[in-house]
Amino acid sequence: MDWESTLGFRRRVWGLGLGVAEAMDTAQRNMGLDYAATRELVERTARAATEFGREHGVPTRDLVVSGVNTDQLPDTQVSLDRVVSAYRSQLEHVESTGSGVVLMASRHLAAAARDAADYAKVYAEVLGAARTPVVLHWLGEAFDARLAGYFGSRDTAEAMDTVVDLIEDHADRIAGIKLSLLDAAAERSLRSRLPDGVRMYTGDDYNYVDLILGDGEHHSDALLGAFAAVTPRRRRRSPPWRPVTPPPTGGCSDPPRNCPGRSSRRPPSTTRPGWPSWPGSTGSSRGGRWWAGCTRPGVCRTCPE
Question: Percentage of the chain with pLDDT > 70?
Fold first, then answer.
């Protein structure tokens, strides 16, 4: 692990006024980084956040949140009690570093739970041990097939009722929920039902622009990998990406929502959740061809070049 570069990137993100969500799906957890390395990553990032926060007068938990999971357990079915114990162990560790907490969806819980009541029981015990409000994470099967039916049902509406009940029962222990279902309508529905003070964080790689802009009454905040691409760069004569079609002449001063070139359709099928989909991403057929859903690169004032 190149720790100097790893932490240097995080300092650059903080310098842009953004927070860091550490040790989260899908780039790290359950994708090859074992728990020992995850634990060290959380500790080092939290220390760096504390140092940065001292210099700029910002609390550590406002600079970094870290994922709490059950991935120190063996990859076999375990009891609900062991799931609770694993969650609480990681929760205690993350809170000891000063980082905020994202209580992630657990593969072990998905395998062990029989119904919504089991989810309610486990989350009640884990939330009861939290010293500060946490962010829940509902990661859908589009990202991890082993999480199908999370919160007790494959029907999103039924599972959402369970989530709302859980949040209302423990509103003092929950700061927000990150939703990663790739379902904009479901996200709008859930965020309209959240109690006051509980925030919606979008993890929707496809619809985050509209979800962050909001509907005039509610909006989602950002907690997703797309913002790793927000960084200053010098304009180049030859940009590292190419639009799908040559930019048309003329210009459009409207914001993306009203741009005549805006499209609501998703990226091509070669793009999958978790892959970058913004200009300047690593070149491949999976990314670098879409900018906020606009099909007329160069028209919107928000489009580069």
Answer: 72
